[in-house]
């Protein structure tokens, strides 16, 4: 482990000077002078430094005591809601990879994890680029060479996730040969989610048909074809206009043909193998379908883990034996391009499920990681519990304002960049390069500029083959 003072175990000394000189002192920071380590996202745990994942290095020089070049870690003991913002190409998906590498079981031991107990994760992979987490970067690939050189500089070894599973919906391109089919069960979709998917209000005639149909089919396994049969039966609808039934029939039939739904589809419980990373490759789906899948996953997660933790607490209170039935204690749900899944200005199936997820998630051991290039376009009700932020380069003022609003600590007041004094935080964010961000958490007196470390597994911007 590198949370130590032994030089052989240290990360490379890659940052010894900086063009970013912050004038505001860091009056509060979780700093461990042994080995020069800074810990973010940590509730006080005394001298216990387990469950830390390596994020990168402090990139700013600071007035007063400077931490330039110190190693930055994120504590994963307690659930987080992490919010990553930045323009195209600023390093958001890269960060998601860095975080997932840090919490997952790796093919071989790595100093990027300090006593981490692997955590199960589910990635909503809207661009289908995270399958590479299962592969180490390769010498034979031009684009990987730069990454391998970077890893050497940082004194890190290439690695890959030991248990990564890739799921694709029917009809999507496959190329690994190991992809699993992703279908969802119609019974897992609630009436309001069907309505959001079909662009209907719950209290509209079509919304009423959906609600009544689901009620009639009950809690059994059923196909969309069974919904269509029920809707098509005149005797079930003495008072409902035929035109409304026809309209909903056409839409549902369209969904039946996509094969995205099946009575024997995925049960979220099957994804919850301890320490496994489940990558849902959704690039070829319509945005509303990406949103629906996210809704089903999020809602099932808080149901399953909520029940699990309640049973666990009761068993412990009454000192009874606890049968864990394989459910993990902790799960991370990771959503790239979150504004696509939960947009602000449209009804989307995922919205209420995610609002609920963040409200109830902490007690159920659930973390959420959201990345977006358009903070102003994301439904901000899901951001109420954000406790860690990664703020990359942004350009538009509306996006900067929306991102800064969610930083759980103070932003920077004055920073000198290349000889110029910047006094507006938006201007500071505008000058950042890819892989650089202000990291904010409640344990630090203000956000701190960090250089994110290289990925140890292949990054999905290019192919490892
Ligand atoms: N920490 C880093 N170290 C080295 N290179 C990085 C780092 N972060 C990002 N990059 C470089 O920047 C490129 C873009 O990063 P990434 O794909 O994460 O952008 P993004 O913010 O997700 O963009 P988009 O909004 O288009 O998805 C990467 O392919 C990589 O080359
Ligand atoms: Mg991206």
TrEMBL record:
Domain Helicase HerA central: 82-300
Originating organism: Rhodovulum kholense
Protein name: Helicase HerA central domain-containing protein
Pfam families: DUF87
SUPFAM superfamilies the UniProt entry points to: P-loop containing nucleoside triphosphate hydrolases
């Amino acid at each position: 482990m590198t949370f130590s003072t032994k030089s052989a175990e240290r990360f490379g000394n890659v940052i010894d000077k900086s063009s970013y000189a912050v004038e505001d002192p860091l009056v509060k920071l979780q700093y461990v002078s042994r080995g020069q380590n800074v810990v973010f996202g940590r509730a006080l745990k005394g001298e216990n430094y387990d469950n830390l994942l390596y994020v990168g290095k402090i990139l700013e020089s600071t007035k007063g005591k400077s931490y330039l070049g110190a190693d930055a870690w994120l504590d994963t003991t307690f659930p987080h809601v992490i919010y990553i913002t930045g323009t195209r190409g600023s390093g958001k998906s890269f960060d998601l990879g860095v975080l997932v590498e840090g919490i997952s079981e790796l093919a071989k031991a790595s100093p990027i994890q300090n006593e981490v107990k692997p955590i199960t994760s589910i990635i909503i992979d809207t661009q289908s680029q995270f399958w590479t987490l299962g592969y180490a970067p390769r010498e034979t690939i031009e684009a990987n060479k730069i990454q391998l050189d970077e890893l050497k500089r940082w004194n890190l070894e290439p690695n890959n996730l030991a248990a990564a599973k890739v799921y694709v919906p029917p009809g999507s391109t496959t190329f690994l040969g190991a992809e699993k089919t992703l279908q969802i069960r119609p019974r897992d979709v609630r009436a309001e989610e069907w309505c959001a998917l079909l662009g209907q209000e719950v209290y509209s005639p079509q919304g009423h048909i959906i609600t009544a149909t689901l009620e009639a089919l009950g809690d059994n396994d059923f196909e969309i074809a069974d919904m269509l049969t029920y809707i098509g039966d005149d005797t079930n609808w003495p008072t409902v206009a035929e035109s409304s039934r026809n309209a909903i029939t056409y839409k549902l039939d369209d969904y039946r043909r996509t094969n995205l739904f099946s009575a024997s589809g995925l049960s979220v419980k099957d994804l919850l193998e301890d320490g496994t990373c489940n990558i849902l490759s959704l690039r070829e789906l319509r945005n509303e379908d990406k949103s629906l899948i996210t809704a089903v996953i999020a809602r099932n997660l808080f149901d399953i883990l909520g029940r699990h933790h309640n049973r666990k607490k009761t068993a412990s209170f009454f000192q009874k034996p606890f049968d864990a039935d394989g459910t993990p204690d902790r799960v991370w749900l990771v959503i790239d391009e979150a504004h696509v899944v939960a947009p602000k200005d449209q009804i989307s199936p995922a919205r209420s499920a995610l609002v609920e997820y963040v409200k109830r998630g902490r007690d159920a051991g659930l973390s959420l990681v959201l990345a977006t290039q358009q903070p102003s376009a994301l439904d901000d009700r899901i951001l109420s519990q954000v406790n860690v932020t990664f703020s990359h380069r942004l350009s538009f003022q509306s996006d900067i304002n929306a991102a800064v609003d969610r930083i759980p600590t103070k932003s920077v007041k004055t920073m000198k960049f290349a000889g110029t004094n910047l006094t507006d935080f938006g201007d500071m964010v505008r000058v950042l390069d890819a892989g650089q961000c202000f990291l904010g958490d409640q344990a630090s007196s203000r956000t701190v500029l960090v250089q994110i470390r290289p990925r140890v597994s292949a990054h999905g911007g290019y192919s490892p083959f």
